[in-house]
Design goal:
By secondary structure, the protein is mainly beta. It has one domain: Calycin beta-barrel core domain (Lipocalin), CATH 2.40.128. An eight-stranded antiparallel beta barrel has the order 2-3-4-5-6-7-8-9. Strand 4 and strand 5 form a beta hairpin. The longest helix is centred in the N-terminal third of the chain and has 13 residues. 22% of the residues are buried.
């Protein structure tokens, strides 16, 4: 589990990716295009995940103890229950959403909150949008990425989610190594606030 090398198909994936993608982060131009993660198995994403690191995202500035419960529906969609705690007042919050893959077997999906708003309005709610699983080993961690293009510029966001709230230093280094292969800067990440969490599961 402590092997820092990226083997087999993922090496070929990274070589192809690096030939296509330039510098990462907020900047000029439209969102970069990533090739899909090979052999992505959406059903292995089911279960409990915790946010352990992320890039800055204004909508999450007050959140802590972020926990995701993921299920796969009969239609192959992701059903997500996301629980957070307000870090300032300590109140819990739960949101429900659905992730619709771009196509069968795609690691990219459109996320929308479960509500009665028309889709045109619902897609503008905080958190709604297009997300991609850039890499995962299913058993320990996943790197999730989202990007928005506005006119001549784009802004992207990164989340590292894991099966446990706290991860070992060796695994964290492995994740950073994968991010560097993906040309994502680990220095952009900030540690998630996972202290004094009361809605524990699988820790």
């Amino acid at each position: 589990m402590g092997d820092f090398r990226i083997k087999g198909a993922f090496k070929m994936y990274v070589v192809f990716l690096c030939a296509m993608v330039g510098a990462r982060g907020t900047g000029p131009g439209r969102c970069p295009k990533y090739p899909p993660l090979p052999d992505f198995d959406i059903r292995r994403m089911a279960g409990t995940w915790f946010e352990v690191e992320r890039s800055f995202y204004l909508m999450e500035i007050s959140t802590s103890c972020t926990q995701l419960e993921v299920a796969v529906t009969a239609r192959g969609f992701l059903s997500l229950t996301i629980t957070t705690v307000n870090r300032w007042i300590g109140s819990p919050s739960t949101t429900y959403g659905i992730g619709i893959p771009s196509y069968a077997g795609s690691p990219s999906f459109r996320y929308k909150l479960n509500n009665r708003m028309p889709y045109v309005l619902g897609r503008m709610l905080p958190g709604a949008g297009q997300y991609s699983v850039l890499f995962t080993d299913y058993e320990q961690y996943a790197i999730v990425w989202s990007c928005t293009s506005v006119s001549i510029a784009h802004s992207d966001r990164i989340w590292v989610i894991a099966r446990r709230r706290e991860i070992a230093a060796g695994l964290r280094a492995q994740i950073y190594g994968v991010m560097e292969q993906l040309r994502l800067d680990p220095d952009r990440l900030i540690l998630a606030n996972n202290h004094n969490c009361t809605h524990e599961a699988n820790t």
